[in-house]
Write the structure tokens for this entry.
Amino acid sequence: MEDLPKGLASSNASRIAKRLRSVSGGRILDVATAGGGFIDTLMKTLKDYDSFVGIDYCASAASKKEMESAKKRFEGKPVRFLEMNAENLEFEDESFGTVCMSHSLHHLGKMDRVLVEMKRVLKSGGNFILQECYCDGDQTEAQKADELEHEWEARIDSLLGVTHNKTLTKQRIMDIGSSLNLRGLEVFDSTHPVDCLFCKRKYECEDPKNQATFHNSIKDIDNAIKRIENYSDLEIRNRLKEEGERIKETIAESGSASASYLFIIGRT
Ligand SMILES: C[S@@+](CC[C@H](N)C(=O)[O-])C[C@H]1O[C@@H](n2cnc3c(N)ncnc32)[C@H](O)[C@@H]1O
């Protein structure tokens, strides 16, 4: 892929992009879409597609806002965003040519139920695409710092009543992929933070201490601290704040880079 930033040639991102270039998506459902980030990726990589529907149950005020801004961002494009619980997809059986979910398995309260629903609405012979970051394996110090931040934020979400489980292990994600009983199952292991895929300016530099990545992580931690400002248990609040400050120091030392992830694709 000629437009991949330098350095990506050694990672699997280019193989994933190449695989996506052979997929005709048809009508595509992106489950737990948040701000439609994965729709963006698919639009830029798929061989062709008809339209997208992005659904999210928007459990928090922040995710409602994210969906609203996604609606504006995709204005004029064949994309619809709907507030919906993935446990009960309000679509006919076999009504999509592709169903996908990105980095959301560990956000689901009833994962099995959601996966059954995704298969139900997928046409026979349709594409099932799953990508999910993992917590183990051989990751850099910068990726480990990101995982530390992620786990800390997951605890904050859980305290505030938003489901956010620990990131899954690579083996667990592979087991989930196998349990889907897809035909022609392919699993790609990214060895590189996905952020670099399309961003030409901010993430051009491969250094995990690159200023844009660093400032984004610090901003995320500060926002999470703000979210627990009114949490009733002072002791827990203070402990989480202290942990947040320590994670900032770790990030200042090692930098921060997105965790590695598995990309799984197969057909029903
Ligand atoms: C990490 S975000 C998704 C990121 C997005 N897919 C991307 O790749 O840019 C996880 C999302 O899962 C959504 N979610 C969790 N459980 C859900 C459910 N049962 N139904 C719909 N959305 C759900 C959350 O609201 C949140 O927006």
